[in-house]
Amino acid sequence: MKLKYELIALDVDGTLLTDEHKLPASVKEAVREASEAGARIVLCTGRGPMGAFPVLEELELSGVLITHNGAATVRSENREILFQYDINKDDLGEFIAYCREHGIHYDVNTAYEMMVERVTEEAKAMYAHHKVVPLEANFDTDLPDGLVKFTLFGSKEQMDFVQSHWEKRPAQLQLIRSGDFFIDVQHPEASKGTALRQLAAELGVRREDILAIGNYYNDISMLEFAGLGIAMSNSPDAVKRAADLVAGSNNEGGVADALRKFAWTE
After folding, report:
1. Which regions of the chain are under pLDDT 50?
2. Quick one: how far is CA 54 from the chain centroid?
3. Could you give the dihedral angle defined by the CA atoms of residues 149, 115, 147 and 155, in that order, rounded to the nearest 10 degrees?
């Protein structure tokens, strides 16, 4: 058996992890097998590095991660930032005002720090699942430079409503639906696909030697860029259409089945 792909890009939530935010043993084993055979494993996630490092550690791996939907590509060993797409904090005023007015939870992120003005009980539980602890700040006075992401968190219905209104605004910053309960506001050029393209060029890896697996709208760009893009069966239809193949669900260890079926050759 020989690996077909030099780089394997894996989404985290809804792909590697179950809906209960657990890493199935079968998935860990399959990812480790590919890594030990020489594949470069790159987690590509909407999470920031601090929320992605625990997953990388559970896989017993280290290396480069594409985080914040491609807005920050970092190296785990020394926390070096390889690529970053900054947004102007002055452009966030209308988004902050909207969230305050409508009682929507939000946070602001640099590559490594997450800041909040307040935390609801629902948000506390969400942050605990992602293993991150946000810093409290006054967004009128304390926002630093180097921001990469503004995130809203709420019910699917609430996020659907916000998305339907915000999509009609002038596109100075882009909206990324990174999950049923999340909307991210970022630099218009930031995406997992763009970051994966940059990383591949840096490493000298051809796109046909890249396998990508994901499950949500923010994964479409990397599924389309990779030589083989695989969507999970729990993906929305638009994500499945953008992929070359469809694997099993995240709750059934679909990544393990996909890697063993498509990443290897006789």
Report:
1. none
2. 14
3. 10
Other C-beta atoms closer than 10 Å to the C-beta of 33 total 17
Which amino acid is residue 49, in one-letter code? P
Q: What is the CA radius of gyration of the chain?
A: 18
Neighbour count for residue 54 (Cβ, 10 Å): 14
- DSSP per residue, 110-166: ESS-EEES---HHHHHHHHHHT--PEE--TTT---S-EEEEEEE--HHHHHHHHHHH
Which residues belong to CATH 3.40.50.1000 in the chain? 2-84+190-265
Q: Which CATH number fits domain 2-84+190-265: 3.40.50.1000, 3.40.50.1100, 3.40.1160.10, 3.65.10.10?
A: 3.40.50.1000
Return the number of other C-beta atoms located less than 10 Å from residue 177's C-beta. 18
Q: What angle do CA 13, 201, 65 make, to 5 degrees?
A: 25
pLDDT (tens digit per residue) in 192-213: 999 999 999 999 999 999 999 9
Domain covering 89-186 in this structure, CATH number = 3.30.1240.10
Q: How many Å apart are CA 160 and CA 26, to the nearest integer?
A: 34
Q: Mind listing the pLDDT tens digit for each residue in 90-138?
A: 899 989 999 999 999 999 999 999 999 988 888 889 998 888 889 888 8
**pLDDT at residue 265 in the model:** 87
The DSSP bridge pattern shows strands 81-84 and 72-75 to be antiparallel
How far apart are the C-alpha atoms of 260 and 74, rounded to whole Å?
28
